[in-house]
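Note to self: the last two entries modelled the partners one at a time, which told us nothing about the interface. This time every component goes in together.
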Amino acid sequence: MDLKTTYLGLKLRTPLVPAASPLSEEIDGIKQMEDAGASAVVLYSLFEEQLRQDRAELDHHLEHGTESFAEALTYFPEPKEFRLGPEEYLKHIAKAKQAVRIPVIASLNGSSTGGWTEYAKAIQQAGADALELNIYYIPTDMDLNSAQIEQTYLDILKAVKSVVTIPVAVKLSPFFTNFANMAKRLDEAGANGLVLFNRFYQPDIDLEALEVKPNILLSTPMAMRVPLRWIALLCGKVRPSLAATSGVHRATDVLKMLMAGADITMLCSALLRHGVRQIGVIERDLSAWMEEHEYESVAQLKGSLSQKNCPDPSAFERAQYMRAISQYAAANSN
Amino acid sequence: MSKTTQRFTKMNKTYTTIDGNEAVAYVAYRCNEVMGIYPITPSSNMGEWCDQWASEGVKNLWGTIPSVVEMQSEAGAAGAVHGALQTGALTCTFTASQGLLLKVPNMLKIAGELTPTVFHITARTLATHALSIFGDHSDVMLARTTGFALLSSASVQEAMDFALIAQEATLESRIPFLHFFDGFRTSHEVSKIELVDEDVIRQMINEDCVIAHRQRAMNPDRPVLRGTAQNPDVFFQAREACNPFYAKCAGITAQVMDKFAAITGRQYKLFQYEGDPSAERVLVIMGSGGETAAETVDYLNERGAKVGVLKVRLYRPFSVKSFVEALPASVKAIAVLDRTKESGALGEPLYLDVVTALNECLASGQCKLQRMPKVVGGRYGLSSKDLTPAMVKAVFDNLQAASPKNHFTVGIEDDVSHISLECDPEFSTESDKVVRALFYGLGSDGTVGANKNSIKIIGENTDNYAQGYFVYDSKKAGAVTISHLRFGPKPIRSIYLVSKANFVACHQPIFLDRYDMLKDLVPGGTFLLNTQHGPNEIWDQLPRPVQEGMIKKKVKFYVIDAIDVARATGMGARINTIMQTCFFALSGVLPREEAIEQIKYTIKKTYGRKGEEVVKKNIAAVDQTLANMFEVKVPAQVSSKKELPPPFTADAPKEIAETLGAIYGNRGESLRVSAFSPDGTFPTGTARYEKRNLALEIPVWDEKTCIQCAKCAVICPHACIRIKAYDAKCLQGAPATFKSTEARSPEWKGLKWTLQVAPEDCTGCCLCVEVCPAKNKTEAKLKAINMRPQPPIRLTERENYSFFLELPEFDRRKLKVGQLRQQQVMEPLFEYSGACAGCGETPYLKLLTQLFGDRIVAGNATGCSSIYGGNLPTTPYAKNKQGRGPTWNNSLFEDCAEFGLGFRVSIDKQKEFGCELLRKLAPKLGDSFADSIINAIQTDEAGIYDQRERVAALKEKLAGDTSSEAKMLLAIADNLVRRSVWIIGGDGWAYDIGYGGLDHVLASGRDVNVLVLDTEVYSNTGGQCSKSTPRGAVAKFAAGGKPLRKKDLGLIAMGYGSVYVASVAMGAKDEHTLKAFLEAESYPGPSIIIAYSHCIAHGIDLDRGAGAKQQRLAVDSGQWLLYRFDPRRADAGENPLQLDSSAAKTKVQDYLLSENRFKMLTKSKPEDAKRFFAQAQGDAERRYAYYQYLAGLKPKTGNGAPTQPTAAATVADHP
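The predicted structure of the combined assembly is written out below.
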């Protein structure tokens, strides 16, 4: 079975790519992914904010309580050098590149314009095959309008594109007034790929402790519906590669995403839940289904049910939603 | 070199700005292969530098990285050093004070075997009537009979130079050297000096001698025997065989000094004379005082005096010839100053040596002196007491008297023995060319760090020499620092505090009420104040004496709102950079623009490692400063009516206010000898008189939300949250804002209940708020106790607290002490200590004193708990209304367990004797009365109460009886009431230096209670690794992270089977702690409680209430286990071990990454961190499994049947 696909210009053996997750924190983990059949790997994210936080914290703790008491003028030895920048991450990229043959896509989660470009350059130098920008924050400033927010995304992308030559994908949330327009503008700004969609920490309330506790839940297949729709809507209408992420757990999910128009599907919760060998299971099931249904290649089915190619394009749009509701209500009233 | 210490070269000389410890360590590290280390103030830094350099891979002169080994004590370090030397390694060590004493036995051996080594000693006071961490020569003088050569350096420059001279001299002579310099004064003074670089060291060290040392090493290829036992027939002769080596040592040292001079141009002599060549009066002195003496001699000679000073460099072996040669032939009178006290001696050691040397020389007939000069001896400078030019002058003046005082003291006013010399406080030798500055800061505001930077800036960028010395107070929270800085065109020889300052800066406005900062400012000098008041408002805010001082001295007055600038630039409470910028702008030491540029350059150099943001905010602070600094025109008239408040509260007894109060008010120097008891005794309960008002915010109780669980009270480190339950009628006369509610305990139905905060003693650590489990139902961010700004409620809460303290104490006999919510009404007899805000140790001590304080006899190992427990001016140990409370003493660091055992044996003996006397006197006293005392059951509060009543009655009965037995019984009758003996110390003591004694005491079967305040490092000396330090933690002496797991002290103690053992963490489970304390105390044999104590040295947000959360994390991750092992359970057929921790809920790494001590390793050595963290997880899992296994074993019946493991035990892995 020909499972080949192209993502960000990278030729991949299959459309199965592990998404950024803690599973890629160890080189062994990346090797295991390759062994299990991953066609590329997105590394865990470099969080610029985390680095800044770490630096501030270290400074605070090394200073705290010093030069106050004659017997204990400091409380810690201070090595000549700290590795407080992205060095560890960059080393990790280099090591990953040496350890596996599949393309290695780095992931960058920044918070300042300076950070985005500086780290992007370093990531390219470290040997990453591509870069995924994970741009997400929750705007809570009431004076910030949507145009300003959208412009920030474009500015970041342009800034990064201006300093690197490797392909750049943007991982986004679906929360835009008109995502189609956003996708178009990201395309114009030079995005090589769109990764749809990010999943985030969401607040929860602990009733016993009376505390708000943000946590992240592993996705269920239900979560694929949002990216499925948008991939189907965008397929063939924008130039960047499309990666589907969220809710891809089984071969059938992969098939649906590919048919909607995804170039690759990204796996995360499925691997966290079942281990990286799940990649092999999905690949086997994918081939089996395709064989059974007499498909020859991924290329053949890719986008076959996108909005452009599906029998009922309106199915991806609002009218469909209304109808579903009314049918449901009717069914219930019987 | 340290991170910020840079060398720079000018006119072919390489300069550096450095402190004495680093200067010495720099040389020692390069000349040695092995260092045996152990922390002790003020020498710890030398070992820390060596450990750090080794972890960074810095190589010695021969290109190898030295092995730095921390031992369990100084005695252990000396043993290891002895062994390393005997097997041929170039080896050295560092220590001070009691540490040197512990090394003495090995020093005798090392010298007896003619082994070259250098022990670098920061000379420090030996503990006598009190401990002191500061400098004098009492330790070195006690080691003078070891056979070591004693070489004294007097300044930072000399400390570095002599470290090398000693190294070469020992190699050449085979006599081991003790190189000493004054603790703190030289070890901690930052000074611009010429660097001894590696080329110099290489030229100085004779490699043939190194090879000869190796050839003498123990080597099985050419075996020898040393360390024999010898008998009367030969020991004496054999002991004398070393004499030729000692005879040559002084000559060799002089040659080495000459060689050093040839290379560096700095010429030293065994005895160095400075002054008029035809001086008639000469001072003989050793150590840093020699520099001040030399400065004074110059000053006096310029004004026509004929005086000189002879500085002793090589004190042992004492070369009579060199000594007399160095003296001017004209000398008629000599004063010998010793920095030590030898009670009962003819005189102090240097004085006796000088007298003997002169006598011997004159007797030989070959002396250049015609007749014996008049020689007097005196003491100065004990415990870093300054030796000022005024004192030196007083010593010379004394020599001019017809009959000079001999065996005098100088620097104090002795109104008891009347032997002190009078000094003229106005006498000063300070040069106009020297800029002298004083800075009053708080530890937390970064003043000292900024001043250290200023010294480097000036030292490295101008031709000026620079000196910095820093004075700290004895509190850990809210510590005041005073920086003494000098800058001048010549090397600075003023080795004493600045008292004629051109510039005084007050970095915290609260000091205006506490210190007379203008007293040391010269007329026309500059005074800089950090204040929130603007230039137009500030004058009227100043206290009257400050206004008066300013007008009188025609002060140039400047203000800045540094807090505001710091806030605006993201600096938080660190006003260091801002105040530093002001200093440079006002002092004119450097042109303003250049100074600013240099500050910025230094900021980049100092903070660059910590990331761009830290640099940016500091630079921003510099940029914002000058626009916010204003000159204030000092009016001609005083307008203020505000007087300075007395240091202590008005209720302090007069004698306490006049002594301890003076110390607290920074006027301790003025106290005379008669102010002190001759045996080191002080009253307890004095911390209550100092109201430090440290907290900007304090907790405020919300009685409507409170569930009366008492968790906030038990965790409060400073006993500032108090609870009382009382009859409603007591509320009569309560202040209007006094809060009260119905008591919730069913037994207390109808009683009122109040939780009251001590507003002026609280340090604002937030621990109480952090642990409060009750949340406001409409606004969940609020709890039953919430932080609120202190100033607006200070006065009302002060009144409320006074009222609260007068409410009656609950009858202890009626309390359910096992329930925290009831127990916490017990009065704490440990309050308001100077421990860090948020301290993890003091809540345990407070609980201890609530439970048993009125009958505690406490022995405290040296460490944090002895410092906040017993450092002057005040003590937190307190008394109840009956006058009872803990009686406390600190013997040493190493012997606390033995000290405590002594209490027990003594008390038990006296009780036994008391019972014997009672039996003898029973016919007089009444048989049943005597029996009731002898057989009293004192296992609870009621039993103890009754026994106290009986003993009181007994005393009454005995009062008129003049028989020997009655008098004797009266003297010991108090021992008939059960005493609770507590042995308190940290992990450094329990796991390391005191472990041998602790083990013995645990094995003794005696009824003592041991409380180990386990912070997992030597907290008091700045966080050095102990055997309690967990794997992966970065600590001093473990700069690369501790590679091995923590010692399991509890498991070892359980091995005896007869010891009560508990491992507790109050922040994780307070009721468990309470239970363990009660069980331990009630157990009639030895008990040990190992108490997890979060600490500032863990790198946590201690002052934001993080401690309890960290304890919970430690327990939840399995890193810290909660358990109790009670031998009484075994007697009752139960398993003695109860594992009170449940299985881990989180990963160990989650806990580790929440503390800087672990997390920083991920930033310095990430690979090691990863490995250690994974191993730490394994450690925790295996340990839990093993404890689970032990706790699951079915107890043996003693009938010989094999042990049956329970189901839990069978599945557990045995490690």
